[in-house]
Amino acid sequence: MNNSYAALAVTLAIQALVSMASFTVPVLAPVALPDLGGSLALVGLFVALIYLGAMISSLLSGSWILRFGAIRVSQVCLLLCGAGLAIAAGGQLWCLVISALALGAGYGPVTPASSHILARTTPRHLMGFMFSLKQTGVPIGGVLAGMLVPSLVGLAGWHGALLAVALACAMMALVAQCVREALDDDRSQSPAPRRDPFKPLRLIFAMPRMRNLALCSLLFGAMQLCLTTYLVSYLTEDYGLALVTAGVILALTQGAGVVGRLLWGWVADHWLEPRRLLPLLALLMAISSLLTAAFTQSWPLSLVAAVSMLFGATAIGWNGVYLAEVARLAPTGTAGQYTGGTLFFTYFGVVAGPPLFAGVTHFSHSLASGYLLFGGLMLAIALLLWRFAGAPAPRCDTG
Fold first, then answer.
1. The predicted structure's pLDDT at residue 163
2. Which residues cross the membrane (predicted)?
3. Apex CA 9: angle with CA 4 and CA 15, to 5°?
4. Residue 305 confidence (pLDDT)
5. How far is 281 from 219, CA to CA, in rounded Å?
6. Residue 65 neighbours by CB under 8 Å, 6+ apart
7. Buried b (16+ CB within 10 A) or exposed e, 117-145
8. Is residue 218 part of a domain?
9. Between vectors from CA 381 to CA 284 and to CA 394, what angle results, nearest 5°?
10. Which of 37, 126, 158, 344 has the most CB atoms at less than 10 Å from its CB?
11. Nearest residue to 373 (alpha-carbon basis) of 233, 215, 218, 222
């Protein structure tokens, strides 16, 4: 227990750097794509490839964590993300394909690894807050990308910005070595037996409450990535903001996500259980998405920022509630395995969401139509989740 805050600090920092790496290319896309000869639709495909890689690596991560240790797996993830950004700096369209897959391979296992560490080091009565605080690393990474990447582009060009973030990932991998022995002391000292990669999926479907969380995360993940992937492009192309100003709005959105994660984690622990809180968050996401679709240049910038922050507080803020609940339900010592299995569904939604958004906007010639579509879909999901919430919660024996 004495290591709980040290574990939180290192997992939060790793999560933030990996998140920043995944946001970097979408943030600088308006500048880089003209040089590459591509359209904004490529942003959605790039993000989809990241999460396709993350789907696979998260599903396999449980056995890697047990064999090599969660910190060692996290270090490899940081290096993969750095390599992915360095490859993207090559300046060719084919480089983006390899870059996205490398980023995805690095992104997928980070959350299962951190859940494994925190489940071991965090007192049960603090799990909701600590997991939510750790998950603020994702929007913090978005804040860093929104605030720093446009400035790095101005100083060193978009190639230099990619290399700078890649270097930061490599440096964090070195820093994590300082705590590796202390936090990886539970790793296996013998070769792991051959494992069934689909076992986490079977375990999840055998536990109804875990299954419901996983399926819910599929839809929420799609909404989250459609917000963060296209917001900068939408604000520059449709609303008419400068890249740096749009980056500030993204940073505010991600900052609201940080606050939202902590707030919703507290609400889920003390006031409204997750199966009743998630429908409320879905409704707020739907309202925010529909309002975003209605942006015109007649809207004052302050109102645009306020709507974007509400969007971020919900579409980004839900994640901590979800992961803390997964860790609570998972049998002792299996939080990483169950988290990796549930994230398979989350990332599937992320893979499907941005390309669908891109297809709709390509044919309509308007990014607003994508937010309109997803706002309508999320409204329908909110109504379904309210119906599911009315059923008695099954009692889950986690051993």
1. 94
2. 45-66, 78-103, 212-233, 239-264, 276-295, 301-323, 335-357, 363-386
3. 120
4. 94
5. 12
6. 73, 109, 112, 113, 116, 336, 337
7. bbbbbbeeeebbbbbbbbbbbbbbbbbbb
8. yes
9. 105
10. 158
11. 222
- pLDDT grade for 190, boundaries at 50, 70 and 90: low
Measured CA to CA, the distance from residue 133 to residue 205 in angstroms comes to 28
Considering the domain boundaries, does residue 398 fall inside one?
no
What are the backbone angles phi and psi of residue 151, rounded to the nearest 5°? -70, -40
Residues of the domain holding 262: 4-182+198-389
Mind listing the pLDDT tens digit for each residue in 31-43?
A: 888 877 766 667 7
Measured in Å, how far apart are the chain's first and last C-alpha atoms? 22
d(CA 150, CA 87): 19
Kindly report which listed range (8-22, 83-97, 309-323, 375-389) carries the lowest average pLDDT score: 375-389
Q: What is the DSSP letter of 192?
A: P
Which residue type is seen at 45? L
Q: Hey, what amino acid is at 51? A: Y
Helices 367-389 and 335-364, interaxial angle, to 10°? Answer: 140
How many secondary structure helices (H) and strands (E) does the chain include? 16, 0
The encoded tokens of residue 21 equal: 């790496």
Backbone phi, psi, residue 242, to 5°: -70, 155
Find all residues with CB under 8 Å of 76, minimum gap 6, and list them: 106
- pLDDT tens-digit profile of 220-235? 888 988 898 788 889 9
Residue 128 lies in a domain: yes
**140-189 pLDDT tens trace:** 887 788 888 888 888 888 899 999 999 999 999 999 998 888 887 777 66
Q: How many domains does the chain have?
A: 1
In residues, how long is the chain?
399
Q: For the domain that residue 323 is a member of, what is the CATH number?
A: 1.20.1250.20
Residue-level pLDDT at 164: 94
